[in-house]
Design brief:
- It is a single chain.
- By secondary structure, this protein is of the alpha/beta class.
- The chain folds into 2 domains: 230 residues, 3-Layer(aba) Sandwich (Rossmann fold); 167 residues, Glycogen Phosphorylase B (Rossmann fold).
- The chain is built from 17 helices and 12 strands.
- The strands form 2 sheets. The protein has a 6-stranded parallel β-sheet, with helices on both faces.
- The model has no long low-confidence stretch (mean pLDDT 94).
Length: 418
């Protein structure tokens, strides 16, 4: 049986090394399954910062033709059929308030779809099989790939979906441009959380048989991280410094908590960079530095290996996340892979990760009292037995290789071999 090639369309990868922990394991599993894989990056500015596995083909056609001319981009958007259809569907009121977003999304489809069409036509001219197209984000490139179905009805399109691809609430006015036009067009959508899957089915009327949850995973540590000692509290958070993460709220809650508990030596480190890093560092200086029992650090970006090294060598009592919205955070999985309990808001896919055996859930708009109670209680997870149970839970649900193998066997092999 002849096997169809798989084209993996990736945003910013392999130029952005921060995407490697999510994408490289999938690439390796696809290659190990014997599939013919081609990587097609787009908007991956600069040189590749990740060494790609041996055996992968690399086509830069999408990346070599960025649309840099703003007037031309606007013109493409204005002339696009998708722009005008957007003002006729049930999202029209939101579209009227965000015309620049509609134009930008339509222009990206109008720009990238012809390049993809040219590549597919070239393969057919060579006598090759129609490829299966796989996008790492449920966004404009997925939409562009779906437009090819008019010319190639047998073309299969698969997309991943993370938090920003799924939840309306992540966007101003709850509006994802063109989503209603393209929501049902991919053949298979693979959210990283079950909550995300149910949201897509419910909010966009996507047939349930098109939506399949495949968790991403982590490499589980062989031993658990050490806990803090009596009279101390060691906390870690890890995320981009963006508004949805509500790190300003975390800092203020920590200030009030620590001020009322001078007998506890608290050490908090936040790992991650982003648009708000400098302002959050300033807020931490004003809120936390004056407290004699608090030591805080915000070092910015740290490599995945650096994070794992921190967990392996430094005591950690809890991983803390107070986001307003989330998908299925890999940062929680990384902590659980080292037996570390979590204190987190019950939003998005977090309840799939955190329960009474793995940590403590906060309400989305938690009070200071609720926060204080959770931090006071998290020290009950310091025992070796409880931490080992967290690590075993991570092995059973979020082992990286097991989850990527399931994705390949459940989705890519059947599509490529059909």
């Amino acid at each position: 049986m002849q096997t169809a090639p798989l084209w993996f369309i990736t945003y910013r990868f392999p130029a952005d090394a921060r995407l490697a922990p999510s994408l490289v394991p999938e690439i390796e599993a696809i290659l190990d399954a014997g599939l013919n894989l081609t990587l097609l990056p787009y908007e991956a500015h600069g040189e590749a910062s990740v060494t790609l596995p041996v055996g992968i083909a690399y086509d830069t056609s999408l990346n070599d033709a960025p649309e840099k001319c703003i007037p031309l981009r606007v013109l493409k958007g204005l002339c696009s059929q998708w722009t005008w259809r957007e003002f006729l569907n049930s999202d029209c009121a939101k579209a009227i308030l965000a015309p620049h977003q509609v134009l930008n999304r339509s222009a990206r489809i109008a720009h990238y779809a012809p390049i993809l069409r040219m590549l597919v036509r070239r393969e057919i001219t060579r006598g090759a099989q129609l490829p299966v197209l796989y996008t790492d984000r449920f966004d404009a490139l997925t939409y562009a790939a779906c437009t090819l179905k008019l010319e190639f009805p047998q073309l299969k399109v698969v997309t991943r979906a993370i938090g920003y691809d799924i939840y309306r609430e992540r966007y101003r006015r709850g509006y994802l441009p063109l989503r209603l036009q393209f929501a049902t067009q991919p053949d298979i959508i693979c959210p990283v959380s079950e909550v995300g899957s149910q949201y897509l089915i419910r909010e966009y009327n996507i047939p349930a048989d098109k939506v399949r949850t495949y968790h991403r995973g982590v490499d589980v540590a062989s031993t658990c991280a050490k806990a803090g000692t009596v009279g101390t509290l060691k906390l870690v958070s890890c995320s981009y410094c963006t508004p949805v993460k509500r790190l300003d709220l975390l800092i203020r809650r920590l200030h009030t908590y620590a001020a009322a508990r001078q007998e506890i030596a608290i050490h908090w480190i936040h790992i991650g960079d982003g648009e708000l890093l400098a302002s959050l560092q300033e807020l931490a200086r004003s809120q936390l530095t004056s407290l004699s029992n608090v030591l805080w650090e915000m070092p910015g970006y740290m490599t995945p290996d650096g994070i794992r090294q921190h967990y392996a060598t430094c005591p950690v009592d809890a991983y803390v996340m107070v986001s307003a919205s989330e998908g299925l955070p890999k940062t929680i999985m990384e902590a659980q892979a080292h037996g570390i309990p979590t204190v987190a808001t019950s939003v998005g896919g977090i309840p799939e990760l955190v329960d009474q055996d793995t940590g403590i859930l906060l309400s989305q708009y938690f009070t200071q009292q609720e926060f204080d109670k959770a931090l006071d209680a998290i020290v009950t997870f310091r025992t070796a037995d409880r931490r080992e149970r967290i690590r075993q839970y991570c092995i059973s649900r979020f082992d990286r290789r097991a989850n990527t193998d399931a994705l390949v066997k459940g989705v890519f092999l059947p599509l490529c071999q059909s």
